[in-house]
Backbone:
């Protein structure tokens, strides 16, 4: 068990290194640099125009006038110590920036995931148990609809209906539990649809297995057969999908956050990419990759709880 | 995906002439399907697909949209970009403007119709890149194993570790926002899915007897890959390609919505939706119709994809 975890952590190191290198090289291939985009912003907001010398001085200040290889070495040696520097835009330590946004992202992620699990898993179980009935057909149909609706469209419609027409719920920005309802419902619809499909397919598969027939032959009630025997087996692939979903949500949902002006990690990374805020992009990507690897490890460990046949590979 | 079916089907390719081939090779799980089973494998699959009402509804929807795109100049009532009626901006649907007008007085029906000429090819372009690069990569990794395989799997890990739109956004930042960058960006982001799918199946197929037989008969690696391995992974690939076509259209419209996809005055459905968002208080139609267009296109594709999956994999 411990060796397994250690092994996984060791495998994660090259992945993290490639992620960081890709981000470092990638964004330096982009035409224009941070100094230019800061100058353009300053000129736009009218806080002062900058000359070519100013840009050069800013480049020097930011250290982006040095040879790329030197910058890369410097970057890696700091990254190893988890020091990603300060955001170019706000001049605050990047992890402070991430820390500011994280609570909003966690709030949104938790609400969406909770809704999705509650409705998605239930719908999936019902669709499998009542296979080939009107109920199942309706649920499967709803699920296909759910994965076909673009979330920015759904979000806009919900905002229009519940915010603008009915005035029931706030449509923009955080503030109290009511403000999280619309964005999390928007996200949950898509997740719900995906979960329904996975849960249904997996449970249908499990219901055709020999051990289910044995359980029925023993005279167990249908309820026990489904909940204790089939469902537990069927949950393994669903948990994998859930893990991917959780990691995705914790990394911010760029589009939906954009629709509802939600100050999470998604809007932050979008802003950072536009502003060429290298340190912020690098730190956020590192954080994303770390979350993904961590969540996947947890998912892996949870397999053992669900299925005792699975042991250390 | 379904190893048992893949392994059963493989030797069949050589013995397709046997009249009973279909019956013993693919025990149908669906009791009602029994009467239909006869003829070659693809014929059976086609029959199952044709008998599936929701798949046919999807196909119909898709054909309708393809027709709209092909006949756009005939169907659109105004020029989508140059026609402006500044006296009638942000209008609700009416007899002269079926979908209403946008903030510059352009006819929304014409713009939505012409939008299909962007969204559909973008989706196809993305799938073509994913397929064209992902499949050979997966074949090579699964077939040769060792170093190439390790390397590829690391890259898949890296891609998975980056959240949803981050990689496409990064690629677009490098290439500059345009329609072409959108296709390339989404294509690159999708390659690992195909590579992983093909690699997994190839790993299993590599150990099959008929591959060993082909090799002992002096088949070269390339011939084995393309004549014996690839045909046997086509089914899951077709399903994956259909579903990722829908995903690509969704993602491309999301990128346009964020302002980094198609650039004005050209408008795909995502761009229309995002500019409509600012005027939705005057005219709800400006968000409703472009959004509906995306929904219907993706719904059609997904219904067809699900039908294909059922038809090609009758065990479920």
Residues:
């Amino acid at each position: 068990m411990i060796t397994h975890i250690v092994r996984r952590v060791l495998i994660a190191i090259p992945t993290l290194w490639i992620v960081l290198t890709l981000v470092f090289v990638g964004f330096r291939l982009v035409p224009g640099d941070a100094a230019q985009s800061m100058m353009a912003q300053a000129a736009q907001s009218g806080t002062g125009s900058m000359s070519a010398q100013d840009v050069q001085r800013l480049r020097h200040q930011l250290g982006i006038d040095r040879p790329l290889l030197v910058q890369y070495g410097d970057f890696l040696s700091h990254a190893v110590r988890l020091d990603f520097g300060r955001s170019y835009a706000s001049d605050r330590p990047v992890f402070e920036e991430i820390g500011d946004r994280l609570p909003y992202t966690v709030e949104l992620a938790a609400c969406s995931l909770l809704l999705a699990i509650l409705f998605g898993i239930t719908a999936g179980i019902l669709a499998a148990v009542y296979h080939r009935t009107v109920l199942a057909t309706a649920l499967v149909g709803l699920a296909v609809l759910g994965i076909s609706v673009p979330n920015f469209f759904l979000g806009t419609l919900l905002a229009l209906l519940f915010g603008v027409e009915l005035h029931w719920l706030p449509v923009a920005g955080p503030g109290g539990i009511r403000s999280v309802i619309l964005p999390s419902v928007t996200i949950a619809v898509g997740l719900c649809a995906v979960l329904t499909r996975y849960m249904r397919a997996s449970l249908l598969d499990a219901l055709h297995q020999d051990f289910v027939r044995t359980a029925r032959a023993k005279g167990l009630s249908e309820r026990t057969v489904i909940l204790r025997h089939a469902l537990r087996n069927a949950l393994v692939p669903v948990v994998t999908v859930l893990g991917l979903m959780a990691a995705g949500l914790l990394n911010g949902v760029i589009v939906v956050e954009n629709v509802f002006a939600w100050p999470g990690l998604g809007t932050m990374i979008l802003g950072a990419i536009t502003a060429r805020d290298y340190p912020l992009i690098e730190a956020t990507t590192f954080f994303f990759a770390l979350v993904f690897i961590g969540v996947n490890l947890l998912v892996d460990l949870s397999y053992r709880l669900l299925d005792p046949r699975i042991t250390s590979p | 995906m379904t190893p048992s079916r893949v392994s059963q089907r493989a030797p069949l390719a050589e013995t397709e002439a046997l009249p009973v081939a279909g019956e013993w090779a693919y025990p149908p799980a669906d009791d009602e399907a029994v009467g239909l089973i006869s003829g070659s494998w693809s014929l059976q699959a086609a029959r199952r697909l044709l008998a599936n009402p929701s798949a046919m509804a999807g196909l119909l929807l898709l054909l309708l949209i393809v027709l709209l795109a092909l006949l756009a100049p005939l169907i659109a009532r105004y020029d989508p970009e140059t026609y402006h009626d500044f006296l009638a901006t942000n209008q609700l649907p009416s007899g002269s403007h079926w979908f209403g007008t946008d903030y510059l007085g352009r006819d929304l029906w014409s713009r939505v119709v012409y939008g299909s000429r962007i969204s559909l090819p973008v989706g196809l372009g993305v799938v073509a890149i994913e397929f064209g690069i992902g499949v050979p990569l997966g074949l090579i990794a699964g077939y040769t194993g060792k170093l190439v395989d390790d390397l590829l799997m690391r890259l898949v890990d890296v891609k998975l570790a980056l959240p949803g739109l981050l990689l496409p956004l990064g690629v677009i930042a490098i290439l500059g926002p345009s329609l072409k960058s959108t296709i390339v960006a989404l294509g690159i982001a999708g390659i690992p899915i195909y590579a992983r799918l093909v690699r997994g199946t190839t790993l299993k197929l590599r150990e099959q007897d008929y591959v060993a037989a082909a090799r002992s008969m002096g088949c070269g690696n390339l011939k084995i890959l393309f004549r014996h391995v690839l045909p046997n992974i086509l089914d899951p690939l077709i399903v994956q390609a259909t579903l990722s076509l829908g995903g690509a259209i969704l993602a491309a419209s999301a990128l346009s919505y964020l302002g980094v996809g198609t650039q004005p005055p050209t408008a795909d459905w995502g761009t229309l939706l995002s500019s409509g968002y600012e005027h939705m208080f005057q005219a709800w139609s400006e968000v409703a119709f472009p959004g509906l267009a995306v929904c219907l296109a993706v719904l059609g594709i997904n219904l067809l994809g699900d039908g294909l999956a059922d038809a090609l994999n009758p065990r479920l």
Notes: The CA atoms of residues 42 and 48 of chain A lie 6 Å apart. The mean pLDDT of chain A is 84. Chain A has 13 helices and no strands. Residues 94-129 of chain A form the longest helix (36 residues).
